[in-house]
Amino acid sequence: MRATFRLLSLTLLLTAQVWAQATASRQADASTASPELQEASKLSQQVVALYTARRYSEALPLAIRAAEIRERILGPQHELVATSLRNLAEIYLSQEKYADAEIHFKRTLSILESRLGADSKDLVVLIERVAFTQFARKDFAGSELHYLRALAINEKRFGAESLETGRSLESLGGFYETTQDYKKAADFYGRSLAIKEKVLQPADRQIANLLYKCGCTLKEVGQQAKGQAYLDRAERIVPSSPPLNQGVIQGTAVERAQPLYPEDARRAKISGKVVVEVVVDQCGRVVKASKVSGRNELAPAAIVAAEHWRFNPTTMMDMPVKVIGTITFNFTL
User: Fold this and answer.
1) Distance from C-alpha of 198 to C-alpha of 277, rounded to nearest angstrom
2) Is 313 found in the same domain as 199?
3) Strands 272-280 and 244-248: what pairing?
C-alpha cells in the first residue's frame, strides 16, 4: 500500500510541476521573468528530480526556498505559490510528516478555492490529500468530512453514475472499513461496485477488487452468505493463486489474541514456545491453523488463539491474496 501511495504522490507532484511550468509560460508581466523567479523555477525542477529519486531530505530545503521566493515576489495567493506549497506537502507526506503535509495541502487548497471556486472538479485530489493526512493523524472526523466533500463535488460535476464518483465512493468505503464502521463500508463499496459494473467490462480486475471488499465487509456485519457470494464472484473473475508464504507474520497483525495457559500444563510446569502456521484469507482472517513445533500440551491453546488473529489483507497486483505464515506463542510460568 505504501509503495502504491508513494507512486501516486509522485504522479501528483510531476503533474503539479508541469502545470506550474505551463502557468509560468503564460505570465506576461516582468516580475515573472525576474532572476529570483527563474531561480525558483530551477529549484522546483531540482525538487522534482530529487523526489523522483526518493531523496526527500535533499528535496525539502530546495522546495522551501522555491516557495519562499515565489510567495515574497508574487504574493501568498498566486497559483505558482500554490504549486510550490503542494510540492512541499507531497515531500512531507513521503516523509510521513503528516501535520506538516496537512498544513501545506490546506494552504494549496485555499489558494485554488479562491481561484477556481469551492466546488471545482480540479480540487478533488487535493481535498482527498487533506483527508488522507487527517486520517493518518487520527483526525477521523475531519478526514470523513473531506472525503464526503470530494464525493459531493464528483457527483455534481461528473454525475452520480460516473467513474469519478465511483472512485470517491470506494475511498469512503476504505475510510469506513479502516475505522471499523463495516456497515457504512459495505454500503459505499456496494454503491461503487454498482457504478463500475455499469461502466467497465464484467471481467475487469477493478470489479473483482471491489467484490472482495464488499464480501469482506458484509461478513464483518454478519451477512456471511451474501458476503461469500461476493467473494465467489471475485474468484470467478480472478482465480486465486496458491497462498503466498510470508514467513513470520505476527508483526503485521492488526488484532491479536493471547492463549489461555492450559491448567494441566501449568500444574505439570510445562512451558516453552509453540509455533503455529496459519492460512490467512483475502479478508485478513485466519481460516486454518496448525502446529509446526512445540509441546503437545500447549499446542491446542496456541491454535485457538491463532484462529482469532486478524491481518490487513495482502495484495498482489492490486488484488487481495491468501497467505501462509507463522505465529510464535511463548508459554512461561
Assistant:
1) 41
2) no
3) unpaired
130 with 23, same domain: the answer is yes
How far is residue 323's CA from residue 333's CA, in Å, rounded to a whole number?
32
Q: How far apart are CA 61 and CA 43, in angstroms?
A: 10
Residue with cell 503437545: 296
Cell 525558483 belongs to 40
Residue 20 confidence (pLDDT): 41
Are 79 and 165 members of one domain? yes
The grid coordinates of residue 41 equal 523555477
Q: How many domains does the chain have?
A: 2
State how far the Cα of 214 lies from the Cα of 218, in Å rounded to an integer: 6
Range of the domain at 211: 2-237
Q: Do 226 and 110 fall within a single domain?
A: yes
> Looking up cell 472512485, which residue turns up?
167
Q: What is the 3-state secondary structure (H, E, C) of the chain?
A: CHHHHHHHHHHHHHHHHHHHHHHHHHCCCHHHHCHHHHHHHHHHHHHHHHHHCCCHHHHHHHHHHHHHHHHHHHCCCCHHHHHHHHHHHHHHHHCCCHHHHHHHHHHHHHHHHHHHCCCCHHHHHHHHHHHHHHHHCCCHHHHHHHHHHHHHHHHHHHCCCCHHHHHHHHHHHHHHHHCCCHHHHHHHHHHHHHHHHHHCCCCCHHHHHHHHHHHHHHHHCCCHHHHHHHHHHHHHHCCCCCCEEEEECHHHEEECCCCCCCHHHHHCCCCEEEEEEEEECCCCEEEEEEEEECCCCCHHHHHHHHCCCEECCEEECCEEECEEEEEEEEECC
CATH classification at residue 127? 1.25.40.10
Q: Tens of pLDDT along 140-155?
A: 999 999 999 999 999 9
| pLDDT tens, position by position, 228-250 | 999 999 999 999 889 999 999 98
pTM, 2 dp? 0.83
Mark whether 127 and 91 lie in a shared domain: yes
Structure confidence at residue 23 (pLDDT): 41
